[in-house]
């Protein structure tokens, strides 16, 4: 979090997220890199919520994710938890969404 929130405000702006992604990726993204980025946005949880997506991403990107992310089924799931890992691997052809 210190990379994307150096002031420890508890908020990651979209620009900080983009800067982080740009720094973390070279010529191409990988599913693992996208998963790592979502994990930062999710506060190190294995899932992300609609509220977090809407707070951290521009509206059209948040809605894109919300329309395509499956519910998270892990033992630590909360109501409305979304599976950013399966979504990310599907983006790179490693699974189906």
Automatic annotation (TrEMBL):
Residues covered by the EF-hand domain: 1-27
Protein name, entry field: EF-hand domain-containing protein
Molecular function as annotated in GO: actin binding; calcium ion binding
Entries under InterPro entries matching the protein: EF-hand-dom_pair, EF-hand_Ca_insen, EF_hand_dom
Key words of the record: Actin-binding, Repeat
SMART domains: efhand_Ca_insen (SM01184)
Organism: Otus sunia
Entries under Pfam families matching the protein: EFhand_Ca_insen (PF08726)
